[in-house]
């Protein structure tokens, strides 16, 4: 019983000390990296991930010990690269979005090195789309089909590490985004009942305290 009380007292004391030392902080910086994306089609379309670019600005507010909020404004390339039946043909479509993720930021560690998890919703707007390749004569339903829904939304989650130095904070993160909306119409008369963005991104960020 004494050992149990001692452990409880030690945990409370440690938490109190950390709370007393904690000061809220606001961080601002830039991020950039690569995306590896595809479209979740139903019926299935044979495809591989399309590599694109991702980058923007990051604002982070650490309001409590180990918990904060992170908001980003990014330019993000998504899309897919299709596996054609004719080996002489090729097709890919690149979709460029401006996106706004709202993330809960949970971190572990206090000083120089931190491990973190980001999780939350995001919304994006399609700026442009571009079809590429040699697909003359192809009859695939999605080829030439204009994107019908410019607004894209979903949830995303990532994990990574940050290194805090006198020169600033350096961050590396891997993040997966799961689309909840479709890029094409999905009624019974349309070719696809589902056509949602799915992508994995690897980003590097540089942050400074304000």
Characterise this structure:
- The protein has 210 residues and is mainly beta.
- It has one domain (24-209): Porin.
- It has one helix at 2-21, and strands spanning 25-42, 47-48, 50-64, 67-82, 91-108, 113-132, 151-165, 168-179, 194-209.
- An eight-stranded antiparallel barrel has the order 1-3-4-5-6-7-8-9.
- A hairpin with a 2-residue loop joins strand 7 (151-165) and strand 8.
- The N and C termini lie far apart (47 Å).
Write the layout of secondary structure elements.
Layout: H1 2-21, E1 25-42, E2 47-48, E3 50-64, E4 67-82, E5 91-108, E6 113-132, E7 151-165, E8 168-179, E9 194-209
Antiparallel strand pairs: 1-3, 1-9, 2-4, 3-4, 4-5, 5-6, 6-7, 7-8, 8-9
């Amino acid at each position: 019983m004494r050992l149990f009380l001692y452990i409880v007292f030690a945990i409370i004391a440690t938490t109190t000390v950390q709370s007393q030392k904690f000061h809220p902080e606001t961080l601002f910086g830039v991020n950039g990296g690569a995306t590896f994306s595809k479209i979740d089609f139903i019926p299935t379309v044979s495809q591989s991930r399309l590599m694109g670019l991702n980058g923007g600005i990051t604002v982070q507010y650490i309001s409590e010990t180990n918990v904060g909020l992170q908001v980003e404004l990014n330019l993000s390339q998504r899309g897919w690269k299709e596996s054609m039946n004719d080996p002489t043909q090729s097709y890919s479509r690149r979709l460029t979005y401006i996106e706004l993720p709202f993330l809960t930021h949970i971190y572990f560690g206090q000083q120089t090195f931190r491990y973190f998890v980001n999780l939350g919703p995001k919304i994006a707007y399609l700026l442009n789309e571009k079809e590429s390749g040699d697909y003359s004569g192809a009859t695939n339903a999605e080829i030439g089909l204009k994107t019908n829904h410019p607004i894209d939304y979903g949830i995303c989650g990532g994990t990574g590490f940050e290194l805090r130095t006198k020169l600033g904070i350096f961050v590396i993160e891997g993040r997966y985004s799961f689309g909840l909306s479709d890029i094409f119409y999905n009624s019974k008369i349309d070719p696809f009942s589902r056509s949602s963005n799915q992508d994995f991104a690897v980003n590097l960020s540089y942050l400074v305290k304000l």
